[in-house]
Amino acid sequence: MKKVSRKKFSAEFKAKVSLEALKEQKTLAELAVQYDLHPTQ
Fold this sequence. Notes:
This protein has 41 residues and is mainly α. Helices cover 49% and strands 0% of the residues. 0% of the residues are buried.
């Protein structure tokens, strides 16, 4: 069996997504789709 590797996100990417989430212009689900993330992360 192959071990599934986890995605590693840069601090810059995390900050960008976090700031966009704080603006509340899109739902978290929409942001998750846009940035290829799981909605509960």
